[in-house]
Amino acid sequence: MTENHTTSKQPGILTPLQRLQEKFSDKIIESHVFRGDETAVIGLLNLRSVARFLKETPEMDFNFLMDLTAVDYLFYTGGRVQKEFRFEVVYHFFSLKFNKRIRIKVPVDEKNPQVDTLSDLWASANWYEREVWDMFGIQFKGHPNLKRILMYDQFEGHALRKDYPFNKRQPLIGPIN
Amino acid sequence: MSSAGNFFTSKLDDAIGWARKFSIFQYPFVTACCGMEYMSTAAAHYDVDRFGAGFPRFSPRQADVLFVVGTISHKLAPVLKTVYDQMCEPKWVIAFGVCTCTGGFYDNYATVQGIDTIIPVDIYIPGCPPRPENVIDGLMKLQEKIQKNEQSRALYDPCSKIGRPDGIQGKCSTEGKIKHIEPAK
Fold it and tell me: Which structural domains are found in chain B, ordered by start?
């Protein structure tokens, strides 16, 4: 699946992943292409520089953050590669101008689940990051308003973590007053 | 003014019950897909106005019957409780659809497992979603209840082991209004 030398359909024009590999060759942990969908796995410290590069390079112009979510790999056995980290935060970028997509994945450690925010670059990241915090308990450094978005404030734990008991029921919360 | 038929005798309760059951002002608390069947029931084809219930009031203070239509999440539960508290007596509650009756297939962290854990429910209309005939059946059962001047006051205790089909038998602790269910080990 790992494939570092991707081919562009049009000769002479680099795909977004190829541009990324050119600029951040030493910082990309892994990358692959599946039926034209490009994915790059990068370290958590390089996230902001990579994201800024994707957004601000005129030849790519990824102006739309389509989705931001996370995956919990606790108890994960399906992969060919054993995961050394617990979470992966996944970013889906889209360029309206060039009709191109790229997926960026960031491995996150269980002990210090903290990633830099992208909410100052893409406004849509604001609520997505709140959702990831709510469901997975991953913090976003620099987020202006990191509080729960789907669950209520009194909710304990993070419901989509794999170690959250599926049959756990929390207190019924009383009237608003 | 002396002929027969110009007056009838009745108990006052029966007369009031009769008047109330044919002038149901309902408050539709619609949150989910059951709303489609609710609309279908309310529209001309099934014509809920035949039962005097064709007049939704969007203020709980003017409503007699609270129609809870659709899934209630824990985040929404305080809102539902507030709406119920704002209604004037006498008041009735209809749980419309399985999500409001028991939580339905949303047996998860987010969904209230039956609104009768928050507010008393008079009539349960099961179905996912219930067909309009089923809704009208429930409405007629409610009319019978109104006629008899009956109202439900019972709250289901989520800590009770009775009636929990999933067999969760956890420890319960009650702190003020908050009831807590620990997961089964």
Answer: 12-154 (3.40.50.12280), 158-185 (no CATH)
